[in-house]
Amino acid sequence: MREIQLRDAKATLSAVVDEALQGKPAIITRHGKRQAVILSYEEWERLSQVPSFGRLLMTAPVAAEDLSNRDRTPLRTPDL
């Protein structure tokens, strides 16, 4: 992914958007710091549909009886 300064992106916005549509997103920098990313709407839509790991866990069809009971016996006896 290429980096482009904000002032250059403004001057060539149409070309930056065309590249994003071709699958070549660009990172926009301001004062040397990464500030934004230009990517196609299709790619943004795809990425925004990816659920978080937490949401995947919450929707998992698991009931309490599906989980095995944890064996809490110590693996070794502590030396005193």
UniProtKB/TrEMBL annotation:
Native organism: Methylocella tundrae
Matching Pfam families: PhdYeFM_antitox
Top-level taxon of origin: Bacteria
Protein name (record): Antitoxin
Record family assignment: Belongs to the phD/YefM antitoxin family.
Function text: Antitoxin component of a type II toxin-antitoxin (TA) system.
